[in-house]
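Example 3.2
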Amino acid sequence: MSDLIVTEENGILWASINRPDKGSAISRAVTDGYVAAIGRLAEEPELKGLIWTSESERVFSGGIDLKVPEGMSDADAGPYRVSIVRDLIDATVNCPRPIVVMARGKMLGGAFMNALLTDRIVADDSATFQMPEVKIGLASPYSAAIVECATNKGLAYDICMSARRVPARELQDRGGPCTVVVAETLRDSAIEALETYAAMPAEAFGYMKRWFQIPRIQAIEAALAYSAAVKRA
């Protein structure tokens, strides 16, 4: 069974993480499937957009899978894991078509970062969001840059520096790109959000979306440069 189930329904692509026994962790296969689905949006203009979700109702995603291919050295393991999240996020930030997240359960780390770069997170009250990196001793200006650009400095500081789990309704109420709905209407609400964006003229929508992504891309590049400089020091 595929790590990412991609289906088409009424002109909408659905990309659903299918690793419930692995904490819905984002593997290389999940990222590759997601990138391929985003590619279809460019190749098939009749598609309305993509909804990213998870087969698990309890854990949308535990973040990037820490397991690496058998025989991979420790020196290669870090870059391998980084490439999984970078490729996922690059696909999202460079996509001019609508992408909506349908969120239930826990969403951590790289999954949350990617969700923040989409057009809208539609969640029910079971959804929570967390950036646990600092809690486990990892400093990540890369993730902080994404959270800050998608929310605001105060909320980003709270999320990244406390590593606490933030309920979907708090993310919504504090200015995050999240709309909370009752569980019974979650699917329909996600579809409605995507179709609202898809109803816009595609060229104009893509042009404006690229404009809004520019400061995010610049912030990501600055964070990567800062991290590289610190490692060299």
